[in-house]
Amino acid sequence: MRYLSTRGASPLISFADMLLAGLAPDGGLYLPESWPQFSATEIAAFKGKPYPDVAEAVMGRLIGDSFSPAELHADIAAAYSSFTDPRIAPLRQIGPDLYLMELFHGPTLAFKDVAMQILGRLFARALKRQGGRATVLAATSGDTGSAAIAALGGLENIEVFVLHPKGRVSEVQRRQMTTAPYANVHNIAVEGTFDDAQAIVKALFAETDFARAVSLTAVNSINFARIAAQAVYYFTAAAELGPFEGKGGPVFVVPTGNFGDVFAGEAAMRMGLPVDKLWVATNSNDIMARALNEGVYAAGKAQPTLSPSMDIQVASNFERALFEASGRDANWTREQMATFGAEGSLVLSPPILAALRTRYAAARADDTETLAAIARVERETGQLIDPHTGVAVAAAFNLKLRKKVPVVVLSTAHPAKFPAAVNQATGRIPEVPPRLKAALEGDENCSVMAAEKGLVRGLIEAILPRS
């Protein structure tokens, strides 16, 4: 199994090399040279199987010979050993043909753990084999940072730098990052938006001499290993609810910011999974809803909302979807990304938009609609949901998505991570799980700086010689 760049100017590499690289040298995102395929019989056989077994099957096809089956088995078993629900991504029915897929049973109570716990172990294994060091640089809108810290904190030969937008993540999200006790973890609060933090990360990767000198890599959703691991729960959900003879499979409604979680659904589809539609649910930062509904991908100014992990105006993983929609035309993708980088907007041609709409649809929910959805779920089921899940549930309710196939809403975070929003909607404060209490009580350690690439680079260079 080899990996290519969406921009076509980087050599083909193995899964292990892609894992350590994160972003391609030409600025593109890695994807499989060709998508492995699962037959309907193979997918049906996933029903009733333990989640780790399905993860081994799906990820094994994408990993190729970079890691042995025994290595993959060991790392997946270790990754999920600390999850509080052995089903890893259980389905909970909340209405006729309407389900929540709970993805928050990992160490940091967010969906990022499902992939990051595997990625961290494979990353450390590949790095040890290579005999080198790595500098992990990640921008987070709330959950990626804590998940990366939980996966990589304390590991040898790895330094972790996490950028988050100051004042634009929840207190719980911030404290999960800044109270981490690991000497190799460095938190940076950027005075700006998530898009500002993400732009700094991309700019530092573009400084190739610097990136090479410090062995810079990424573990957020621009790293395809994350996408590979997240594709698994689309398979488990569809297998549990199927079979779908003569039908298009379930509908998945995905709260979306950086487009990685929903693109994992496209990855599953391209590997043979029957899916009726992937619904992209956005909050007021609705760049993806506008792109898919109006045909114009245009960045605005990120607005703070009750669902801060989705307060994003540049959805990095959309490049992967555009590449696939173009028939894998790397030259076209490279030109379009250059245009978007220069102008901040991109008009999607009718053929590209039509190709995207064969898989995706989109809806928007503001804070008022999100609170109403949280309240309705609590009123009708007694279940508390977080505001990101609330955005997706609002989309499912408002668009009357329920058909003759199941509708699955990806529930991406535990409600206790956003107690103020849940309390505002329901009058109830979610019970704090034991694993979250330590983060709320620990001492914080974080650097605050302006959203300037040079300041972040200077901090990295100042810390690495002492590490």
Description:
This protein is an alpha/beta fold and 467 residues long. It has a domain at 91-110 and 224-426: Rossmann fold (3-Layer(aba) Sandwich), CATH 3.40.50.1100. The protein has 20 helices and 16 strands. The protein has helices at residues 15-21, 40-45, 51-63, 69-80, 112-130, 144-152, 171-178, 194-206, 208-213, 224-241, 260-270, 287-294, 318-325, 330-343, 350-357, 367-381, 387-398, 419-426, 434-441, 453-463; strands at 2-5, 13-14, 30-32, 91-95, 98-102, 134-139, 158-165, 185-191, 216-217, 251-255, 277-282, 296-298, 345-347, 360-364, 407-411, 447-450. The mean pLDDT is 93.
Give the count of helical stretches: 20
Fraction of residues in helices? 40-55%
Distance, first to last CA? 35 Å
Number of strands: 16
Strand-residue proportion:
15-25%
Low-confidence sequence ranges? none
Overall outline: globular
Mean pLDDT: 93
Main pleated-sheet profile: 6 strands, mixed
Q: Identify the strand order in the major beta sheet.
A: 4-5-15-10-11-14
Q: Structural class of the secondary structure composition?
A: alpha/beta
Summarize the entry for a quick read.
The protein is an alpha/beta fold. 46% of the residues lie in helices and 16% in strands. A hairpin with a 2-residue loop joins β4 and β5 (98-102).
Blueprint (SSEs and pairs):
Elements: E1 2-5, E2 13-14, H1 15-21, E3 30-32, H2 40-45, H3 51-63, H4 69-80, E4 91-95, E5 98-102, H5 112-130, E6 134-139, H6 144-152, E7 158-165, H7 171-178, E8 185-191, H8 194-206, H9 208-213, E9 216-217, H10 224-241, E10 251-255, H11 260-270, E11 277-282, H12 287-294, E12 296-298, H13 318-325, H14 330-343, E13 345-347, H15 350-357, E14 360-364, H16 367-381, H17 387-398, E15 407-411, H18 419-426, H19 434-441, E16 447-450, H20 453-463
Parallel strand pairs: 5-15, 6-7, 6-9, 7-8, 8-16, 10-11, 10-15, 11-14
Antiparallel strand pairs: 1-2, 1-3, 4-5, 12-13
